[in-house]
Specification:
Helices cover 45% and strands 14% of the residues. The chain is α/β, with parallel strands linked by helices.
Length: 384
């Protein structure tokens, strides 16, 4: 597996890689990670690292831009398939390695890089032109792959509109661990830590970045607390836009009701979900929204934006409530989620269970088998 981000960074891509790797290994497969050199110097046994430089526009992330001998290492490892989770530097490296070694490539489309480019890769040209250039590159990457993984049907359809000649694209969501995230978890220690006993708690988990659309969450919440003074917003995570959002809650006059926890260790996350009454997400950037599924697995309703992947996983009145890109709509969905938490709990849990890690891993193995046969057919000059 090639990836542009890995531990100690924590994001949806990293979580997906770890979950998939662990389940594939339980099935008896061997998974080898190729990742950028960690900025904190902590190297994981069994991971092959690329020398990298820190990306100043996004602290905690690195760019693996130096020459490497990884093709020789891949040849010695005698791998069967290359699965790239990175669309940029590592995506290109994986394609070159596959071509050199005659190995099949599977690409997972985790990140809408075209949406993030205006924040972190701004070029001296109009945004529409940047987007067009990125899609020209992405189309080449996707159509050269033996198979592509889309986390949701919404993303599959979007990819097909830009890269219609992909060999095969399957919807394989990252599974959620419904044993680890479950209604039986006790979040009282988290509530006590942040002074939330007796309050109505809305939770947001994820990178605190501009593309996550937290402005809408905060605008909606500032309306909600006018009707329900007991409401509190717990924002879990770190990111480059944290200072901006801390200033925003001050401007909105809700600083006393919004708590920024900073980074919370992975082993405490199940307790964090258990501590809330409802979860909220306004990101239009998501290709799946794993955090929303983790909240549902814990039995929590989700108030989410009616866009892309989030719109696909929320069933209003069954596992949560959808809202439009409007503060009043957002506030109404948050209020519905908080007021109907007990009613929604069983439906949220059942929906999350349909996204099991076991099912996702089995689908991935089937796609790997297809990619291997597809590559063999191409190498033999046959039409597959």
């Amino acid at each position: 597996m090639f990836t542009d981000s890995y531990l100690p960074a924590r994001d949806g891509v990293v979580n997906s890689i770890i979950l998939t790797k662990n389940q594939l290994e339980r099935l008896g497969h061997e998974v080898i990670i190729f990742a950028p050199e960690p900025w904190d110097g902590n190297r994981e046994t069994g991971v092959y690292y690329f020398r990298a430089v820190n990306y100043k526009k996004y602290p905690g992330y690195s760019i693996p831009m130096f020459p490497t001998n990884k093709c020789e290492i891949l040849r010695e490892l005698d791998i069967d398939v290359i699965h790239t989770h990175g669309l940029l530097f590592m995506g290109v490296r994986s394609m070159f390695a596959a071509r050199t070694l005659g190995k099949p490539v599977v690409v997972s489309f985790h990140t809408m890089v075209t949406d993030a480019a205006k924040y972190y890769a701004r070029l001296p040209i109009p945004d529409w032109m940047t987007t067009r250039l990125f899609w020209i590159y992405l189309r080449e990457l996707l159509e050269r792959a033996d198979a592509v993984v889309a986390p949701t049907a919404a993303i599959r359809n979007e990819l097909l509109s830009y890269a219609p000649d992909m060999n095969r694209v399957d919807v394989i969501p990252t599974g959620v661990d419904c044993t680890r995230f479950c209604p039986e978890n006790d979040g009282s220690i988290i509530r006590h830590r942040y002074g939330l006993d007796g309050e109505k708690v809305l939770l947001h988990v994820g990178r605190i970045a501009w593309e996550k659309n937290l402005d809408l969450v905060i605008d909606g919440f500032s309306r909600l607390v006018k009707e329900d003074p007991k409401a509190r917003l717990l924002i879990v995570g770190e990111g480059p836009a944290k200072k901006h959002y801390q200033q925003l809650v001050e401007q909105k006059g809700v600083a006393g009701r919004v708590i920024f926890t900073g980074f919370i260790p992975d082993d405490e996350l199940p307790l964090v979900y258990a501590a809330c009454d409802a979860f909220t997400i306004a990101s239009k950037f998501e290709t799946q929204g794993l955090v929303a599924l983790e909240a549902m697995a814990t039995g929590k309703p989700v108030a989410g934006i009616n866009y892309r992947a989030i719109a696909e996983i929320i069933r209003s009145g069954q596992n949560g409530y959808l809202f439009e890109e409007d503060p009043a709509s957002c506030a109404a969905a948050m209020r519905s989620a908080l007021d109907n938490a007990d009613i929604i709990r069983p439906g949220a849990r059942e929906f999350a269970k349909s996204y099991s890690v076991e099912k996702s891993a089995a689908q991935m193995v089937d796609l790997y088998r297809f990619a291997i046969e597809h590559k063999k057919a191409n190498l033999n000059g046959k039409i597959f």
